[in-house]
Every structure is written in C-alpha cells, then in structure tokens.
Amino acid sequence: MAIPGQKPKPHIQAVREGTFRPDRNCEGATFAPLSPVEPDWAELFPGDASDDVRGKAADVWARTVPALVFSAGLTDPQRETAIEYCVTVARLWQAERELSRSGLVVETERGNVKSPWVTIAGQYRSHFRSLVGELGLSPASATRITPPESGGDDDGVFD
Is residue 3 within 8 Å of 46, Cβ to Cβ? Predict the structure, then answer.
C-alpha cells in the first residue's frame, strides 16, 4: 500500500543538506561506491532480430548511466534499476517503430482492431515514467536529487 505524501529523501541526501533527523529519517542501505558495470546486451536480448534493441539499450546506457553516477551517486548494486530503464527505453522504441510500420489499427479475421503494439507501448510508457521519477531523469524529479560531494575531484563526467 502506498503511503501518501512526498517521497522520502535518501539518507545521504538528508545528511548533505543538513536535514537528517534520527527520529524522522532512516539511514537505509549503504552501498559501496562502485560504478555500475554495463551488462552484456546480447545476453539480455538473444537472437539476431534483437540487434536494433541491443544497440538502443547500449546507447541509452552510454548516455544516461555516467551522468547518474556523477549526479545521483548511482552504484553497482543499484545497476538493475538502470538496466531496467535502458531495457524499457529500448522496448518502447521498438514498439513505436512497429506502430509506425503497421499502424494503430490492424485487420484480423474479426475485423479491424487496435494493434497489440498500442497496448505494449502504453505499458512500457507507464513503466518508463515510474523509472524516470525513480532515477531523477525528468526536470521535476531532478530537482529532488542533490549531487554527492565531489571531494575536490574535478575528473567528473562533464569535464
């Protein structure tokens, strides 16, 4: 059951902002600061027909994950969320391509019906929105994330 109200901040963010209170905040899990390792996309998307989806997922990983490591402190134990985001974007892209090819309505033995790709795209779009909010990738959710302290290291992603 969902709890109404604002989502709680991660422990480290409350500490950085100086708003941590032991009676109101939970430390939660602490992860080692290891950068996420990119998965083998051929293992996730087997078969020859998956080349386009593999390429899209790898492209999304290359564009998104380094920025998340820098801006939100994404670590290797949390990489499954990033992988799920990449898979969702790749599958949504695949669904939109199939919709462009076949159209919104397909002809069947029972007449014209809504393409199954419309349903698939809608489900992936809904999952995409939840992952974007979870990872802080939308403009609104990005305002809720405070970047980790750099410790004087200027070798960031954006240098």
Answer: no
* Segments of 27-133 assigned E as strands: 105-108, 111-114
Residue 1 confidence class, pLDDT cut points 50, 70, 90:
very low
Q: Spell out the domain ranges in the chain.
A: 36-142
Cβ–Cβ contacts within 10 Å for residue 66, how many? 16
Which structure tokens are listed for 8? 């709680």
Cβ-contact 64, 86 below 8 angstroms: yes
Distance (Å, whole) CA 116 – CA 131: 23
Is there a contact between 147 and 70 (Cβ–Cβ < 8 Å)? yes
CB 156 within 8 A of CB 150: yes
- Which tens digit of pLDDT belongs to each residue from 45-95? 888 766 788 999 999 999 998 888 887 778 888 889 899 999 999 999 999
Cβ atoms within 10 A of the Cβ of 86, count?
A: 25
User: Which residue, 144, 126, 17, 125, is CA-closest to 71?
Assistant: 144
Query: What pLDDT was estimated at residue 127?
Result: 92
